[in-house]
Amino acid sequence: MSMSSIECNYQRKVTAKEYSAALAEAQCSHCGISSKDLMRRGELLEVCGEELYSDIASGERVLIPIALCPSCHRRHHQDAQRMHNPCQIKARHSRECLE
Predict the structure, then answer these.
(1) What is d(CA 35, CA 44) in angstroms, rounded to the nearest whole number?
(2) H or E segment to which residue 68 belongs
(3) Cβ distance 60 to 51 under 8 Å?
(4) Burial of 59: CB neighbours in 10 Å, binned 0-12, 13-18, 19+
């Protein structure tokens, strides 16, 4: 399993099966660039989590693995101050002024 060059909390818990499933479509879930086009640039798709839903009562969050190009993965982890946050959920909450 090839991991990202950026710090990503989700990648510490993703299973090999989830990793393979996320890469099955062979394109970035956000911008749509194909894995072939990335390989021509010397890059690979990376796996991260996307929040499917959260249970307000329990605080439990359900994440699904998604494939991202390195550029979209970096943006996925940027907070409101454009700083890297290893937790993509906290970064998104910061961008959306939820925290």
Answers:
(1) 6
(2) strand 61-68
(3) no
(4) exposed
Q: What is the pTM of this model?
A: 0.85
* Distance (Å, whole) CA 66 – CA 23: 7
- Count the alpha carbons within 13 Å of 8 in the hemisphere toward its beta carbon: 24
SS (H, E, C) 24-67: CCCECCCCCCEHHHHHHCCCCCEEEEEEEEECCCCCCEEEEEEE
For each of the chain's 99 residues, which pLDDT tens digit applies?
445 677 899 988 899 999 999 999 999 999 999 999 999 999 999 999 998 877 777 777 788 999 999 999 999 999 999 999 999 989 998 999 876
SS3 10: helix
Angle at 90 between CA 26 and CA 86, to 5 degrees: 60
Name the DSSP class of 16. Answer: H
